[in-house]
């Protein structure tokens, strides 16, 4: 297994994985075959898979996990071994970020992992039971919490918040017990129950480990938080989460000022503050909840240690200040309560050996509290339709299972950074993410020509104008089919330099002029540039034979397609007399200028400017064989 | 006079063909469907599902696109399903005969004979699905350019100026199209410059053009259409056109090519200076393949282009040797732009893989392309294009193709000021002795005219009355005498004496002018040869007939009305003869 070859295989595999965006059986089996043929690189491939699942957008996590599923079922060892190591993180990370439908699929997949490979003689489950059990118990906890929270919310908003702040409390609630009754079906009941029961125990020891709380510092912190929240409130007065948070902070401040709190309560409050938690009213009144079930000391000992670690981490003054700053800057609207966060991992550690995740908690907590997983972003990164987005409790769940930095980052790099170096090496790197700028970024398509528009208001407007353009063009084409068309002369350099491309997405008025100036370039249209003047040719014979009073030339009648009548080009009726429009403007505008019109004839070198600058005294209007008032040169 | 591929007609055989039922082609992501359609036959392609693009321009779903006389590829980034079916055969008179103007013009395809159908899907001559494509690289070039454009927008600099070089059939024009299409998709306005006289862009072969693209490239019609009197389903593009009446830019050591190039670059620079959108997006220059062989002279011409257009990025396709020489000469060298010194703008040379889909287009095919381009200049697009007109209100979709009606008319010899290239390879009896031609330095220095023989002119024109015959007078002042035109110029040696690239052609016009093109310039008939050479053109006249006795020629003009009194350049050798454009 030479390092280079392995790297290459991994790189190839990564590229192939990036192409996998949908649940495509063919691609997945292809990827499985590749994995099978490269078992000597199993470690590299497993790592690539894990990384890919972690970084890929939520919609593409399921196919990637199906690849894992396919590999472990069809290839087995050594992949089971390599992939099993981090399966807990991989799975939970994905699970927290996908929608409920995908979650159901993941649940189903997980179920099959507990069973032997179908059709295989091997009776062992796909993954060792300890791996699947760990995932399952975590899922159950999250689900329970979610359900419980949902119900509680529907009952009473304030109570909900208080319960969030005091996790031990919810183990009490009847819904909790109800949920707990479902667990035996998953075969996890004993582990789960003991885990639940362990919570109170964990809370009992923690106060003993706590340091004294500096009240003044706490008040300062709260004040700064309130100031930040106020600022936010003025910016976003309608955002309920901001309102809620501000209110929570003010309440907390009131409580601190009004009441004498025990050190333990104060510590809880400080934990709340450190995480900018919602209004922790109830910790002060319901600080010690009743313990519903029989404690199991053996279990309780294990969780206590990581828990205290995480608390110490959080209680570190530097961390607190950092958290406040970070969160204030990030405008985290409803951050989760800090103290609820470590509970679930410790619970996991009690039931299964996948305790590896537990030591991460302080780090993860810090990450989250620094605004990397704010409540407001939760709905976008983790669409959880079954759970209200503002629901705070699911957030700790996400925190625990998600290295939260990665998913948002991966998405933003694919969208924003168009930073490709112009060199031969750089252009060989596939950048599928950037292709979206040509396709998916503009999802609004014109059905006729395939042009894409942004799905924004502006894009819609543009598309509407574009469709107008199509409509008008088609109308004109239907009209134009009746008469002969021809190629226009090319423009000269000057006109070309001055010309600006006209799009097919400009407003109608623009399109009107531009369409005529480009398409109607042969001058068949009577309304070019500065509108050419014409009048209907008079029916009266004498009038028709009256020459222009200025130049004494007669008018020539031409048939106009547009007007469907005989007209006099370049004519204007002034009072009762008809003049050549150009003669008249010469005389009137240019005052005593030379009556024979010394208009610069240089412009005649562009007989058919597409810019609509053609003068009336230009060359013949080719479409009409009309001799329009020629200037004596 | 022989042009390669002139005997195309003999090779085609009338075949009985029953249209095959529509075929579906499924493309996996990142693969492409390559197809070749003969001239005279059409193939219809419809995108059923997924996304697909033809040289960067996306196809609309469920629209039928009709292709004829092309070798192209439809690529998909996401996977797609295409439906391929055989289209109508274009027979001789479909375009123009029916709609000819009162002058009685009609057209046919005598030169093409019966169209040949292939036996691929939809009657393609060849079609297959390829999985290996260099599209990732091409797209990355676009993204790299886009990075530079963003930078240009932020800093107020000029956008990137890209030069695409490589031998023939390496996919240069395809890359140019892809980059252009992607840029317009990002709502940019690239200024695309074609300096390849063998193939026109928005014009006939023999032209050097510059065009700002804002709207999408026509999927079916090469680059699209230049302005017409009527509407076009795909927005028309406005090219600035110069005429270069030779196939080979290196001819005459570039004595004719380079000044035209410089003039074109000047206009492009002028446009860049004034048009903000174009300035930010930059330029894409497509070059003739002959420059891609590293032959003597070609590197000088490339250098000329790089300098004139202040190229920042050189894309080398399909030639290691050229890449290495480009790398040596240009990589990381400062650009020639005025601001380069201040901004430290440097040239980057990029090697791009040639697509496996590049096929050699033989002389016969190229001639077909050329004839189709000239035909469509006068007569429009003969292919009914249902895709572009799906929303059409008219019930008869067959009327929605753009049919143009050129005008035939007679012109007096004496009313014309026709110039011709003084080339080295002239061997016909109509060729002129280069030693009898006026002397003209490539830079446009000395112009000698009758009446002012002894006085060298300033660089500008001498007024010569139209209708008179200005006789070119070289150093030995021998007036031109048609009777004395014995051929002495069988070797290129005279060209080394800075022979004039253009000379005025006095009446009577030779009969060989029939079936060829006259480029009508924007220069007045009295202009000097150098002015005529440098002038952009208004369009083309097709000489249908030369009547020496009456002193008239019958021409086909793109539009009615008087042919503008301008100096014209005879494209005798290039784009050459097109037989049977007018019956």
UniProtKB/TrEMBL annotation, chain A:
PANTHER family in UniProt: PRE-MRNA CLEAVAGE COMPLEX 2 PROTEIN PCF11, PRE-MRNA CLEAVAGE COMPLEX II
Record-annotated CID domain positions: 5-143
Stretches with biased composition (Low complexity): 514-528
Chain segments carrying region Disordered: 152-175, 329-357, 502-545, 590-633
Compositional bias (Polar residues): 340-357
UniProt xrefs under InterPro entries: CID_dom (IPR006569), ENTH_VHS (IPR008942), PCF11-like (IPR045154), Pcf11_C (IPR054127), Pcf11_CID (IPR047415), Pcf11_Clp1-ID (IPR021605)
Any one biological process term the GO annotation gives: termination of RNA polymerase II transcription
GO molecular function: mRNA binding; RNA polymerase II complex binding
UniProt-recorded name of the protein: CID domain-containing protein
GO CC annotation: cytoplasm; mRNA cleavage factor complex
Record-linked PROSITE patterns: CID (PS51391)
From TrEMBL, chain B:
Binding-site positions, ATP: 32, 71, 169-174
Compositionally biased intervals (Low complexity): 480-500
Keywords, sorted A to Z: ATP-binding, mRNA processing, Nucleotide-binding, Nucleus
Location of region: Disordered: 1-24, 425-505
Localization in the cell: Nucleus
Polar residues bias (residue ranges): 450-459
Entries under InterPro entries matching the protein: Clp1 (IPR028606), Clp1/Grc3 (IPR045116), Clp1_C (IPR010655), Clp1_C_sf (IPR038238), Clp1_N (IPR032324), Clp1_N_sf (IPR038239), CLP1_P (IPR032319), P-loop_NTPase (IPR027417)
Residues annotated as domain Clp1 P-loop: 166-379
Gene Ontology CC, one term: mRNA cleavage factor complex
Limits of the Clp1 N-terminal domain: 27-152
Assembly and interaction partners: Component of a pre-mRNA cleavage factor complex. Interacts directly with PCF11.
PANTHER family xref list: CLEAVAGE/POLYADENYLATION FACTOR IA SUBUNIT CLP1P (PTHR12755), POLYRIBONUCLEOTIDE 5'-HYDROXYL-KINASE CLP1 (PTHR12755:SF6)
Name of protein: Polynucleotide 5'-hydroxyl-kinase GRC3
